[in-house]
Prior knowledge:
This protein is of the alpha+beta class. It folds into 4 domains: 9-121, 2-Layer Sandwich (Beta-Lactamase); 133-226, Beta-Lactamase; 257-301 and 317-373, Beta-Lactamase (2-Layer Sandwich); 385-568, Alpha-Beta Plaits, CATH 3.30.70.270. It is 42% helix and 27% strand. Strands 2-1-5-4-3 form a 5-stranded antiparallel beta sheet. Strands 7-6-10-9-8 form a 5-stranded antiparallel beta sheet, sandwiched between helices. β18 and β19 (490-494) form a beta hairpin. α14 packs antiparallel against α15 (467-482). The longest helix is centred in the middle third of the chain and has 32 residues, at 344-375.
Amino acid sequence: MPQGVQPDLIEILDIAIIEATVRDHRIRRANAAACALFGRPEAEVIGLDWEKITTPADHARLHAQIRMRQASGRRRERMMVRLLQPDGDLRHALATIVLRADPDGEEYFVVHLQDVSEEIAAQDRLRLIVENTPVSMFLVDRSGRVLVSEGNASPEAAAGLAEARASSIFTAFAHLPQATSIMRRALDGQRIHQVLEVFGRRLDVHLVPIPGPGGRVASVAAVASDVTDLHLALASLRARSAEQAVVADLGRRALEARDPAELWQRAVTALADHLGADLVRAYGLGADGRRVGPLAREDRREPEIPTGSQRDPPRSAAGWVTVPVGRPDRPLAVVELHRAPLGDQEREFVHSVTAVLGSAALRFEMEGEIRHRSLHDGLTGLPNRTALLDRLHRALRRADHDGRRVGVLFVDLDGFKSVNDTLGHQAGDDLLRTTAVRLSHAVRPGDVAGRLAGDEFAVLCEDVGGVTDLEAIADRVVTALATPVRLLDHPVTLSGSVGLALSNCDLADAETLLNAADIAMYAAKRAGPGRHLTYDTSMRTPPAATPSATSTHDHPTSAGALGSVMTLR
């Protein structure tokens, strides 16, 4: 627009307006609202043939309208047009077309376009709904005459509604007093929702009073849905909803449960409740696929069982359903239930429950493995330092409560580094595994052997009467470690140094007691390999180091040192 020229109404108004020549149908002017409706910038719209942005089906109709207006002299017309968008979509517009002429006599159109796409889409959606659902809709005036009716009414109802267009609904349906009664109540202002038994069908009827200008009911909108088939499915729907609720509850509990037994029992109880099964039981499966023990059971059979009969019917008997739990290639458990033959929906429910149980079982298995790995040494399988300290802490609490004492043995292999250096790390690993086995067999039943780190081990001994008892255990440990072992076809004799510590008022927590045993072990090592010493407070100030006072932490590497702690044959 030239500078200083005021915009006219076409530019100011936020309505889509274009001008197009009658001669060649080209757009010679379009405001911003029209360009937005076309989905094109103004530079593309100006000069565009009107036919390029309307559907081919509208072209003939548009030309016919132009010829009729030119012949009749009519200057204004309204029509629906479909506008092509650049992306291929259609927009519907109500076009008000005014025929005008320039001062030089050339005719052109001024077209006002109103976007009615949403209204058309809504009508189409409503039409699709009405045409494809078993619903009948009609509007009744105060006299009972049907003003309009649409939908899929039954033939009898459709005939009655057609008759009620000329007479009234009270005449056409006089033989259905229940229907006419609820219509009178609706005309009195009540909203009605009721299921009627008419024409051998079940109709779900909604009647909504529509007030007129004075507040009095002017008409009633009615919607009638055929629910004959629906009511037959309600029982199945309720059962499925109950099943979904059970599965959802089990799923939530499976995510939160810490006790697998409680989850298994809840699942078999839910199966028995929902399916009316007289017996539901679950068994765990071992790696070989054999049953390793019952997980849960719900037995609702009659108690009168003849003496000597089998309590559980054989699994091959009729009425048994067996479903594996877990991965198809490696089931972790199996669920069995005894009942009359199951329907498809009931079988689906059983499989949904067992799917939840399978996910939970895998979760428990993985969590157990993670827990085990976090608390056990990966090489020897013994409890690690974290697990040993936790057990020691709990043992000390029990001992404090019972007035008993707890002892700790701190074991360190003499010259372990020489084994690694001479025979390699594989031999060292074999030696550590052998040491773990020997420790476990040398201590008392109930004592706990663990690996702390490297070649350091510890033994937790509860209910120790005194130092003498602890020394007896240490003697067995030293003797067990001194037994020759064959590593890579080499017989090796290796000793161990053992430190002993017994709980008292000064050694009352786990870390302090373990540290005291560690100090005693160093003292034993300084005294020579293959010895054990009991902790006392004087050990906290170690004497000056001597050439013979070696430890695993010094890792002697000379041939003389190797010969003093390890013998290879």
